[in-house]
Amino acid sequence: MTTPLAEHSHALAMCTFCPKVCRFACPVSEATQNESHSTWAKMTTARQVADGQRRMDEGASNAIHACTGCGRCTTFCKHDNVPGETLFAARSLARAEGLQPQAAATTIGTFTRSGNPFGESLSKVVEHFKAETPMRYPLFPGCSTLVKRTALIDDALMVANAFGAPMGVCKASTRCCGYPLYAGGAHDEFAAHARAFAQTLEPYPELVVMDPGCAHTLSVIYPKFQVKLPSRIRTLYEVLADNLPHAPHKPPLDEAAGYHDACHLGRGMGQYEEPRALLRRAVSTVLEAPSHHAEGGCSGGGGLLPRTMPEASVEIARRQALEVASGGETVVTACPTSRRMFERAGKKSEDLVSILRRWLE
Ligand code: SF4
Ligand code: SF4
C-alpha cells in the first residue's frame, strides 16, 4: 500500500468490506445524494488508489475531497473507524499527481506563502487586542476570527471578564494552527508547521482556544504527528463553564435558541455539556435537534469543503439549521465557522459568546 495510507490500511479494509452501516450519517452524501460521496465509496476509492487497483483521476480526487472530517460516521461505526483522517491522508495522493481540486491547491499555496489560509498578516490585529497587563488566561482566537470577525474577540474578552476569568489575546495568535495543511493532505508541511508552532507556545503553560477547529487540531491532531505542545489546551467554552459560578446573577433572555454541536468541539473534544450550560444561562429556551451530542449533524464548514464543494457545504448547513431550529429560531453554536455557514445558508445564527454578551448587557 502506498506510504501515506499505510497506517490507514486496516480502516480502509474495514470500510471497503462494510455493508455501508453508516450510509445515512455522512452529511456530504446526504446533501449531494451522490453515492460516490458516501463514506463507504470514498474509503473504497482511496483503498483502490492506494493499492494500485485504480489510477488517481479527477473522479477519485473529487471523491476523497468530499469529506468535512466531521466524524459523524465514526459515531455509528462498530470498528471506531475515523474515515475523515484517512481521507485527509489520501488527499496527499491527489496532490502528488497534481489532481487536487484547484480551490484546495490554492488554499495550500496561500498558506505556504503567508503562514495562514487568508494570505494576510495577523500581527496588526493581534497587536490591537494585546493586553496591556499580564492576564490570567492567554486567548488564542484562531486566524479565521482574527481576519473575518474581530467583534467576536471583543465579545469573548468582555464575557470572560464578567465571569472573573480575564483573558488577553496572546502573541502566538499571529500564527495559524495549520489545519488547512492537514485537511488538504499537505501532511509533511503540516508536521513541520506544527513543530514550529509548538515552539511559539513555550511561554504559555495554558492556552485558551476559541475556535473548536484549532483546539481539536492542537490537542488531538498534533499528537498524531508526534508533536508535543508545552501548553495545556483548553477551550474558551470549558473555561467559561468552569467560571459560571462567578457569572453575574441575571435572568436569562426571554428567547429560544437551537444549539448546534460543533463537530470539533463535540465529537472532537467531547465537550457537549459545557456550551449547553452556558447557553441555558443566557436564554430561557434551548432547543435540541432530533440528532444531537455525538450523533449531531455537521454545518459543512470543515475539510476545505466550502472551497472545494461550495454548494454542497451550504446545503449541509441549510439542512442542519432546519434540524436544530425547525421553527426558524436562532441557531447558536460555539464554532465561528459553523455560524458563518448557517449565515451563508440564509439562516439566523449567533455565536455562543455573542449571545452571552447580549445576556450580560
Ligand atoms: S466508517 Fe465504519 S460503518 Fe462506516 S463504512 Fe467504514 S466500517 Fe462501515
Ligand atoms: S467524516 Fe463526516 S463528511 Fe467525512 S465521511 Fe465521515 S461522515 Fe462523511
Would you kindly provide a written description of the structure presented here, covering whatever features stand out?
There is one protein chain. With about 350 residues, the protein is of the alpha/beta class. It has 3 domains: about 5-100, no CATH class; about 125-240; about 245-360, Rossmann fold, CATH 3.40.50. It contains 19 helices and 8 strands. Strands 2-1-3-4 form a 4-stranded parallel sheet. A 4-stranded parallel sheet has the order 6-5-7-8, sandwiched between helices. The protein binds iron/sulfur cluster (2 copies).
Structure keywords:
361 residues, alpha/beta, 3 domains, 8 strands, 10% strand, binds iron/sulfur cluster
Quick overview:
By secondary structure, the protein is of the alpha/beta class. 49% of the residues lie in helices and 10% in strands. The protein is globular.
Reconstruct the topology from this structure.
Layout: H1 9-16, H2 27-32, H3 39-50, H4 58-64, H5 72-75, H6 83-96, H7 102-114, H8 123-129, E1 137-140, H9 143-148, H10 150-162, E2 167-169, H11 179-183, H12 187-200, E3 206-209, H13 212-224, E4 232-235, H14 236-242, E5 253-260, H15 273-282, E6 283-287, H16 305-308, H17 310-324, E7 330-333, H18 336-344, E8 349-351, H19 352-360
Parallel strand pairs: 1-2, 1-3, 3-4, 5-6, 5-7, 7-8
The structure holds iron/sulfur cluster (2 copies).
